[in-house]
């Protein structure tokens, strides 16, 4: 199993550009989520999904859009990038989303918005 | 509102010098407390899950314990390869939305 994979590893955007961060998992996990990690702020939840076709907002959803058309993939879209979205983005997944399950993280995407 | 506070923010140890990292939490209906290790430039790597007060888990030089208000990650005779940031997170009743602390950066010098 590849586990949780994320692409790209690193991206530079200009303010106002759009892009999609890709996340895929091959563990047949129903629950997937996106976090951002900023210095001094810790990891914060952006959006999550409990299964194909079902998504919900986390702590910091503004400026981000998600959809879940398959169990394997959970892309994160930035419609109009802003410098405040410069961060490291992590995708995570777990089997069913029950609160006692371990979540497994991808390697991250480092985004710089100029 | 769930809160997770980790201390200290940074810790420098000599190889073989044992110590503990603290994670205090305020959450209604704790479902699980998770410890992760994060190396620079990488994603968090799962270490332990604790579910109820009094529970303990061990892995090599690491031992995690849980009370009703806090968790400790004890590091016994650390080695330089234990240098990393250690993250604590909790989930409460409902889905697996993790609330993270800001982490403790551990540096073990040879």
Descriptive terms for the model:
heterodimer, A: 114 residues, mainly beta, seven-stranded mixed sheet, four-stranded antiparallel sheet, globular, B: 110 residues, 59% strand
How many angstroms does the end-to-end distance of chain B come to? 41 Å
- The number of strands of chain A is 11
Q: Helix amount of chain B, in percent?
A: under 10%
The percentage of residues in β strands of chain A lies in over 45%
List the uncertain runs of chain A. none
List the helices and strands and how they pair.
The complex is a heterodimer of chains A (114) and B (110).
Chain A: E1 4-7, E2 10-13, E3 19-25, E4 31-38, E5 42-51, E6 54-57, E7 64-66, E8 76-78, E9 87-94, E10 104-105, E11 109-113
Parallel strand pairs in A: 2-11
Antiparallel strand pairs in A: 1-3, 3-8, 4-5, 4-9, 5-6, 7-8, 9-10, 9-11
Chain B: E1 3-7, E2 10-14, E3 19-26, E4 30-38, E5 45-50, E6 56-59, E7 62-66, E8 70-75, E9 84-92, E10 99-100, E11 104-109
Parallel strand pairs in B: 2-11
Antiparallel strand pairs in B: 1-3, 3-8, 4-5, 4-9, 6-7, 7-8, 9-10, 9-11
């Amino acid at each position: 199993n590849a586990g949780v994979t994320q692409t790209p590893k690193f991206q530079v955007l200009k303010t106002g550009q759009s892009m999609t961060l890709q996340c895929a998992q091959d563990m047949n996990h129903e629950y997937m989520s996106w976090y951002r990690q900023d210095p001094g702020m810790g990891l914060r939840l952006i959006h999550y999904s409990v299964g194909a076709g079902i998504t919900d907002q986390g702590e910091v959803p503004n400026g981000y859009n998600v959809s879940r058309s398959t169990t394997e993939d959970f892309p994160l879209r930035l419609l109009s990038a802003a410098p405040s979205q410069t961060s490291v983005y992590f995708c995570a997944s777990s089997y069913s989303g029950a609160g006692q399950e371990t979540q497994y993280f991808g390697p991250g995407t480092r985004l710089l918005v100029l | 509102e769930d809160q997770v506070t980790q201390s200290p923010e940074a810790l420098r140890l000599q190889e073989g010098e044992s110590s503990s990292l603290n994670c205090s939490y305020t959450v209604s209906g704790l479902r699980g407390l998770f410890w992760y290790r994060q190396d620079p430039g990488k994603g968090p790597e799962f270490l332990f899950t604790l579910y109820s007060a009094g529970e303990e888990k061990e892995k090599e030089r690491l031992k995690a314990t849980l009370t009703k208000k806090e968790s400790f990650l004890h590091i016994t005779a650390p080695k330089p390869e234990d240098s990393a940031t250690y993250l604590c997170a909790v989930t409460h009743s409902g889905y697996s939305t993790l609330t993270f602390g800001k982490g403790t950066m551990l540096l073990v010098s040879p």
